[in-house]
Amino acid sequence: MQQRQTREALGVLLLSLGLVSWAPSIHQLEQEKYRHISVVQHNPQTLVLGRSEDILPAHERYGKSVFVYLPYWAENFAVPWQKMTHLAYFSLEIDAAGDITDSHGWASGFGAALVEAGHAAGVKVVLCVTLFSKPDIRTLLADPAKRANAINNMVEQVVDIGGDGVNIDFEMVPGALEGESPTPKENFVVFIQELKAALNAEIPDNHLSIATPAVDWNGSYDFDELAEACDALTIMGYDYHWSGSSTTGPIAPIEAGTLWGSRDLTWTVEDYIQYGGSENKDKFILGLPLYGRDWPTEDFTLPGVPVGSATTPIVSACDGFWDGNKLWDETSQTPYMLYSDGEQARQRFCEDSDSMAAKFDLILEYALGGVMFWALSYAGSEHELWNELDTRWRIDSEEPAEGEEENSAPTAHIDVVATHLGGEPLPLDGRLSADPDNDPLTYAWSVSGPVEVSVDEPSMALTQCVVETPGMYQISLTVSDGLLSHTTNAEVEVVEDSDGILTPEDLFDDDLAGCADCQSSPGTLWWVLLLPWLGRRCRIKKG
Q1: What average pLDDT does this structure show over 520-527?
Q2: 327 forms bridges with which residues in the sheet?
Q3: Which of 117, 343, 442, 478 has the fewest Cβ atoms within 10 angstroms?
Q4: Can you give the pTM of this predicted structure?
Q5: Same structural domain for residues 217 and 326?
Q6: C-beta pairs of 379-384 under 8 Å, 24+ apart in sequence
Q7: Residue 439 confidence class, pLDDT cut points 50, 70, 90
Q8: What total number of domains does the chain contain?
Q9: Assigned domain for 100 exists
């Protein structure tokens, strides 16, 4: 709690110094941009409600959520029902009183058509509800009567056409005013709890999720309480660089490195695990952008200095734009292009199937609950990214063919000391993890506790981290054979006093020297314990 308060205080300080610029999300920007557009069912080229009865539903194939936003302005494309688990219709707008201001065609028959097609393909169809005014959000959340009115209106809209639930997109929940009690942060948790209770009363197998920010700059989102109150947090993991950014850069970098700023997807995921609880990882749905940014710049230096606002090309448009001139940034795992438009230098950062594949692996590495996309129609239903997702996440649930054996799940095993001296490398040993079929395993480590901790090499069987702050830490290891996975946990108490701490000789196990699936030589543990100067240390974030 102290670390959380420190982070919030730092955010307020940065705001007061003018170092953090608030920017509306792409959800809000595009809603305003397309406000004049008719909803899809009124366009001559109507939405194709495609489905396939020959393919297992995505929730059976993946065991994870594939949550996709469908904006009301989208048109002339096929919905890849067999490739998603949840479709959120964007959006129904409400005001500070909880009254509906625009349903954008949801209640006029199109919502019912989506629900029918979605249910035929095993997809849950939910209604996204938006409110993008901070003063209005504060007013709505603070008044029990207004909250009840909003909830009644939302639930009625969903129940009337047989929908499955609600996705709340309030941006941004405001920080507390001086002396304000309860705060908007506290009221938002109550609102979500009340909405979930109302949905439970009407729809037994309902879905409630919340669109949440990549960086909670003013500490207005109680990640753990919200995760407990709903089914998923759809984390908007994009716009780390946006159309008005002071420099160019990747929209959703896996790692920022020294070039792309102080925040990235890895930071965001670890922030949610730290403050939302590792026990809620299966509720964290990482949002990814099916779009990019294209800036006019002073020159081709990276990061570039924009000389105007960026355009927002969609992934499908970027695919045909590269024309063999695509470059690759290894740190962020993002493609980009430097080119000239006449005499004007430009820099484009956009996603492709390779960058998406790297992000799908990140979700597996941290054992998150799934992926969210903004937005459907920005990449075609046959785009290669869907194949990358299927390759990485598919679970073989079919009966084995004659002569084949059924795949069995692996077992994760952690060897780690119960008590550890703060500031020293903490070895994490998963080499006794096993697979009954002797399939090769992949490893994903995470560490959570009083401060945020990153593992040195989280995909290795034998690795380490360094923890400075005393306290109880939870070690989590997920192993996967490519189809099935297993997660186990252990606790380590980090202390300041070295009395009773095990020595390197106590920890090294000669029996593991011949381990064939360890991804390291038997001497690695000695290096981990005795040579921390090698620089293989983890990041620890304190706010």
Answers
A1: 36
A2: 336
A3: 343
A4: 0.72
A5: no
A6: 379/290, 379/314, 379/315, 379/316, 380/77, 380/316, 381/50, 381/77, 381/78, 381/79, 381/80, 381/83, 382/80, 383/315, 383/316, 383/319, 383/353, 384/353
A7: confident
A8: 3
A9: yes
Residue 243 belongs to some domain of the structure:
no
DSSP H helical ranges for 221-312: 223-229, 265-276
Q: Specify whether 133 is located in the same domain as 222.
A: yes
Radius of gyration of the chain (CA): 24
Helix locations, 455-519, DSSP H: 504-507
Tell me if 232 is assigned to some domain. yes
> Mind listing the pLDDT tens digit for each residue in 235-266?
999 999 998 899 999 999 999 999 999 999 99
Q: What CATH number did the domain enclosing 448 receive?
A: 2.60.40.10
Task: Look at residue 387 and tell me whether its pLDDT is greater than 70.
Answer: yes
Residues 210, 253: one domain?
no
Query: Among all chains, which residue has been given the structure tokens 């989280």?
Result: 458
Three-state SS annotation for 148-173: HHHHHHHHHHHHHCCCCEEEEEECCC
Closest CA relative to residue 230, chosen from 65, 367, 2, 374: 65
pLDDT value of residue 523: 36
Place of tokens 């119960």: 418
Average pLDDT over residues 174-194: 97
In this structure, is residue 10 part of a structural domain?
no
**DSSP assignments along 172-229, one per residue:** TPPPPPTT-SS-HHHHHHHHHHHHHHHHHHH-TT-EEEEEEESS-TT----HHHHHHH
Pairwise CA distance, residues 251 & 336, whole Å: 11
Name the CA dihedral angle for 52, 55, 61, 64, rounded to a multiple of 10 degrees: 0
439 and 380 in a common domain: no
Q: Which residues pair with 434 in a beta bridge?
A: 411
Task: Give 462: exposed, middle or buried? Use CB within 10 Å, 0-12, 13-18, 19+.
Answer: buried
Q: What is the edge-to-edge ordering of all strands in the sheet holding 452-453?
A: 419-421, 485-495, 471-480, 442-448, 452-453, 540-541
pLDDT of residue 381: 84
Domain range for 147 is 45-236
Among 141, 62, 42, smallest CA distance to 94 is for 141
